[in-house]
Here is the input.
Amino acid sequence: MLADIERVISIETPSDDQEAVARGAADFAALIEERLGVAPESLVVDGTTHLRLRFGDGPARVVLVNHQDTVWPHGTLERLPFSTEDGILRGPGSFDMLTGAIMSVWATRLLLAAAGVPVPDTESTTTASGAGAAATGGASADAGASGPVPSPAEALAGLSILVTGDEEIGSVTSSDLIRAEAKEARAVFVMEASADGALKLSRKGTSMYTILVHGKAAHAGLEPEKGIHAGLELAHQMQVVAGLADPAEQTTVTPTKFSGGTTTNTVPALGQFDVDVRALTAEEQQRVDDAIRGLTPSIDGTRIAVRGGINRPPFEKEMSAALFDRAVALAAEIGIEEPRGVPVGGASDGNFTAGDGIPTLDGLGAVGDGAHAEHEHAIIERIPPRTALLAALVADGLTD
Here is the structure.
């Protein structure tokens, strides 16, 4: 597994470089075929490459959601190369979320082997401490020796694995794919990482806006009265928008990046600012959306335009409750530490499926720290038991 994690980390895949994402997807597809003996489909949507591996011909009953794009720009590996030291795995994307994506592959490999499906040889076909056998009730790769050997499609019928290429920039081209793949699923497992190992039971919904304020330019010294000051209107609107936050409802509305004007001696004709919105409920998310779209100018002659909107719906805790209970029970059955569950503010692709009413459990990937930071890392000893738990959850979800 560590060699596979090093392999995917060693190919830089910044989200905004579609060619780099395509290269990463091609190698990831090859890795999947090498480990599982079956090749995923490559799906290109508006220039961004995603992978999908389906087992069986029917609708997906269990979906594993991964992404292989990262926030890291080209050249990061020169400063922060892959390394393992003192039980810690480091490198760009090691925590968010390349380790989790490889865990998806290896959990699937465990299940194929347990069903008696021949899988390609590697140096090690199980996880540490017998976790692979425990995850599948003690079955082994010899399980099919006394009867016909099932095909991968037969052994894991109903499983679908997605590896997308634009999660870090809002999943603009992959969200429809994720939602369509999961629409008839009984369980979606999202392989995002967890700082302390806790599974993620709910996530806030996210909205992103750019608000543009149009005014009229004029010479700031000769005839400022002939201008219409977009900057002053922008300052007013930033305060109005910030006031939409509701701490009691845990709704945050935060103006972030802003800009305006051209030269020191010109009344600004244009200003704009970005807004980040997080809300626990769909009702709160819609309230803020309606208010932002209803902004009205305070200075005569200015005009307001709004771009963007709701990106990911809230992932409410009701959507994870039953799957979390199963995770706790299965952890006890296979003899690993009982997982905890926590709500979090950040969003993931699990928001899409949970928002559609599909049971979803998130945070099943690496345990470590440092998402989007230079100290990004994963704890090596936590990878095998987490992989075993994932395998057990998938097997449970595929059982009629």
Q: What stands out?
A: Residues 13 and 21 are 5 Å apart (CA to CA). The chain has two domains: 2-203+315-398, 205-312. The two ends are 30 Å apart (CA to CA). Confidence is low (pLDDT under 50) at residues 124-133, 137-145.
